Structures
1.
Amino acid sequence: VPVVPVPVVPVVPIVIPPVPEPDPPEEDWDDPLAQSFQVTSTQYADGIFCTGGELYFKSKDDTDVGVEIRELDETGRPSPVILPFAQTLISSSSAGVSTNGTVGTGFTFQTPVYLRPDGEYALVIKADSIGWNTFITRMNEPDVLSGRLNDKQPTLGSLFKSQNNSLWTASQQEDLKFTLYKARFVNDVNA
């Protein structure tokens, strides 16, 4: 077999600069809290339209707090799916605080948010700082207002904590103090 010479091509090193890792979107890297809840068909056969609600803060700073309603995923944890129109902000200037959870801070959605019967949801609170603290109830500890032992969960859900807005840890013995408002439609008004 004859040997055929192959020309040697000089190798020129190519310097490829390192690609910087993109910064994660700020909205996806919060440390949110979430409280799961259900709209039961036995109580609300047609579902409800949620107009807003109240949260109860112990402290705040000068940043805003985001409030969302999300669907739960198949494991019963908050999903990334935010319901249509179910996002709003609470400004620091409008937020009330108290040492005992008696002062509610209202929030309103831009338009009523439909929650279907037997739908499972999470009320999610997101802040860009650690200056915001909210009230929770913890099983088998005394209530701040009444002094009675908390021996029942106030909702059928769980409190969830996350350090990255993606992985959620259930806190089965704790529940967020919150109120949701539902719209009441009047049918017999002359147009």
2.
Amino acid sequence: SPCTDCSAGKFGEGVGASSASQCRNCTSGRYVSTTGSDAKTGCLACAAGQHQSRQGQSGCTACVEGRFEPDTGSVLASCRECGSGKFQDLESQSFCKSCPAGYRKANHSACISCGAGAHSGAEAERCALCDAGTVPTASRAKCQGCALGWYSRDPTVPCKACQPGSVTDTLSRVGGVSCTECVRGKYSPAP
């Protein structure tokens, strides 16, 4: 009868083998996808972004979304979870991405924009509400004071202009939360 190949995930180094039990398993973190491998060097290391905790395998397992594996030949039972403020929305990845400023981590595979009136720096787990008299910048990366002559009690709505004849409570500074009428002998045109 003809000689039979060692199965995928295994290799045979010696000559004259008489049974499948003489084929040896590739170690954890390594694999061989073809049959008939004749050397341990035929067992390849799992690529970064993959893992394999079992011996004698014909392939490696890809990291799922939200997880990563930076090392080749990983013997872990699962890939590592993305840490604080980081995410991964693709499979088979060796790194996690940072949530940008103006976003917060929603889960291990996504970030979401800060809501109305809120801001965040890069790699944020949560967004913070802007203070009265300020509103978030367009990128929601930080808060900015309402311009002179403008006010905001609620950071979730845009700054509003003071009526002619009134000024912000901060007088000559930005970040007003209300307007007050000009005193006798003074005036203020529309901003």
3.
Amino acid sequence: VKTNSLNKTEFKFGTFQSLYKLNPALLRTWSEILAQCEGAKLVMAAPEGGKTILRNLLEEYEFDISRVEFVPLLRQDLHLERLSSVNCILDTFPYNGGTSVADSLAAGVPVVSLQGKAIVSRVASSILVAADLPELVAKNEKEYIQLAREVFLKNISIHDCQEKIKNSYFARPADFSSDLYEALTNITLRS
């Protein structure tokens, strides 16, 4: 787990997930987060040909485009490096991130996620719980906005999140595997 070194005067939310996960409820929620987090920016990855379409879509949802930074899609190694340029990732819903959430946590960047009822809406929350960060899992859109605001206001400490990640199963897969093996062995012996 890395610790990110950021410009301390500018707060950046980020989302680097596939654009097909964007939907009206999500865009309204992100727009509200920016409205409540004065000065914060949203960094979004977009394919070269999709920036104009994405910009127009965001304007439909009353985003202040001057607070949105469009960045190109990158190779995986460069993308992982870029993750440390944002303070907090905003997960998509109802289709949560999986690999993108794990990558963000590995880079030391907290992720705010909204847990739903279907498996596709629970992947990120499972990863966040495994990383000992259940406080970043929202149960509804209002709570999602509030959690993002708490991270922005530093009521939820990015440093504390990084420490939790370092000490969680997420950062110690061998321990997780060993404990899982032991639990499964005990279950098998009981039957």
4.
Amino acid sequence: ILMYSNFFYFVIKLILIGKLKIGEKLTFFCYKIFNLIDKEWKFVEEKYKILIVDDEQSILDMLKLQLEFEGYSVYTAGNAAEALDKLSYSPDIVLLDINMDGMNGLDLCVSIRDFISCPIIFLTARVSEQDKINGLMAGGDDYITKPFSVNELLARISAHLRREQRSHNKTKSKFSEDLIKIGRAHVWTPV
């Protein structure tokens, strides 16, 4: 059932953004259904937030549609200034292109690291070994070259989010263990 729900959700999104053409009344009906589904799904589970930064609108549109279909909340930025503004959404992961006008992706990565520590995956046409090294040294956690496999990208996003979750759980566990140790050290015992 969930598979069909996701498919239905995807088709409605295609209609609403104008990729599938249907009649005006049917489009209005789909808009109403989309809002009901979207509101209902938001209460079911907390979605991971992804920020995509790329100056190619077609890449932004395609990735946004695919990632929303997979259940993520997606924010897009066409340049570094927009990306820095959208950090206020506290993304769980950032997909970042290197080749952009103005501030390039490497410099943006360094700037982003001043505000957040979430995983950053470079998604770029720069393919040389030195480009990859530069991306990782600038603060990137992963590097995927264009053209890319959407399935591989989804798998890498999922892997990074799992790793972040494990790290978060480990930190909470360590904090709890330290509190227990401190509590035991300060327990008053009569002499």
